[in-house]
Amino acid sequence: MEVTKQEKQSFARYKANNTIEEGDLVVMYLSKETMSIIRIKDGDYFNCKFGNYKHSDMIGLQYGTKLGSNTGRGFIYLLHPTPELWTLVLPHRTQILYIADISFVMNFLNLKPGMSMIESGTGSGSFSHSIARTLAPTGHLYTFEYHQERVNAAKKEFEDHGLSDMVTLECRDVCKNGFGLENKVDAIFLDLPAPWDAVASAKKAFKQDKIGKICTFSPCIEQISRTVTALNDEGFVDIQMYECLIRFNEIRVIPLWTIEQAMEKQRAVELKRKKATPRHMRENNTTEEETSAKKIKTESATAEESNPGTPASTATTTTNNSDSEMDDGAAIVIPKSETPSAASTPVLASEAKIETSTPTAAAAPRERIDPVNVVVTKLPVEQRGHTSYLMFATFTPQTQHPSLTQLNAEAAKSE
Ligand SMILES: C[S@@+](CC[C@H](N)C(=O)[O-])C[C@H]1O[C@@H](n2cnc3c(N)ncnc32)[C@H](O)[C@@H]1O
Question: Where along the chain is S-adenosyl-L-methionine bound (predicted)?
Fold first, then answer.
């Protein structure tokens, strides 16, 4: 039998066969706020609020599959890991860069495949993953971190994520000892408490015959001030500062019920509730029906009052019944080990028999009501504010005169 060699997974590209295999990393997406990453191992389980998922059920599925849980309570998406998702699920060892700053910095540094770049400190490796993917497949990232445990953790992650060929990670204090690289890189990014101490060494690391870009990331304006002085002294030009704020707008699709549809729904709910109540507990059948009829009448009258001139049947009301954020109507796969027939291939949820009602609450078949859906946007209460100031400057071979610091030092010597 022909044994096909498993393709090595990398965060720099999608797997060509797009298939989940033993040993692969998979991002388990429950919602935008709830994600985690697992490594597939036959015999292991992934537990979440929707139930248990067997890893073995995921092997052979395509990345992007929507997988139903054994409890029928929800579903998850099985996603291929990317630098963007890694930023959201990584173990935090330090503060990290998020996608707003990452994308802005990469654009302003003009990063392209094939370039070489310096980054310091590596921290939790959030930015490193995005840089590596952009420089791939032929470029190179030199990343420096002086905290040994962080170096060890990041090194393992780069190996596990198929990036070690294009990332060189070194344990080094770049402010004290510089980068140890000369005439080597196109771009430099400094996320350090004292970036000004690394500027002189950064200048040497740029390819001396080309234009290069540097960015420093600092939360305080005092740090920016010292960095500007250092950049000016070293002959960098085009010094600019930005602050990147992100304002998120939540987009939701909600049903727009007409009063008539809302009333019909309410009637069905009342009927179901009535049927679920044992006969001996129903004190007065007529009273309950009367109450619900009265309630509906009042609602209808209120709607007409608030929409003068609008007949109750055309006035609208909205209900937000979107249970799951990515409920896009895509087919859900039920894990094969959970299907009653133990069929060898996963089945669609629509084909699976799911018990939803108790014998006492068996609802009478009723017509399905399909409301018109509308798209609304909503600003969440919480907004993310200032993270850091982004300082950009350009290295150009034309302005490489002796720096002010050098001139002052020489003047002091000759006095
Ligand atoms: C805020 S973290 C960087 C986070 C990183 N940008 C990310 O997205 O994950 C700053 C890192 O710089 C490292 N660091 C501070 N001073 C340093 C120096 N002089 N040389 C090398 N690393 C340094 C710290 O140990 C820390 O891990």
Answer: 145, 191
Distance between Cα 223 and ligand 1 center (Å): 15
pLDDT-based confidence at residue 284 (cuts at 50, 70, 90): low
pLDDT grade, residue 350 (50/70/90)? very low
The pTM of this model reads 0.74
Residue of the CA atom closest to atom 26 of ligand 1: 123
Domain definitions of the chain by residue range: 94-246+388-414, 250-378
Between strands 187-190 and 116-120, the pairing is: parallel
List Cα–Cα distances, 79 to 20, 76, 131, 331, in angstroms: 9, 9, 21, 15
129 within ligand 1 shell (Cβ under 6 A): no
Is the CB of residue 390 below 6 angstroms from any atom belonging to ligand 1?
Answer: no
* pLDDT over 90 at 58, yes or no: yes
pLDDT in tens, 150-197: 999 999 999 999 999 999 999 999 999 999 999 999 999 999 999 999
- Is domain 94-246+388-414 annotated with CATH 3.40.50.150? yes
Q: Which of 155, 192, 227 to mutate to test the pocket of ligand 1 (most atoms within 8 A of CB)?
A: 192
Cβ of residue 175 lying under 6 Å from some atom of ligand 1: yes
CB neighbour list of residue 296: distance below 8 Å, 6 or more residues apart:
263, 266, 267
Ligand 1 mean position to 45 CA, how many Å? 35
Maximum separation of any 2 CA atoms in the chain, in Å: 108
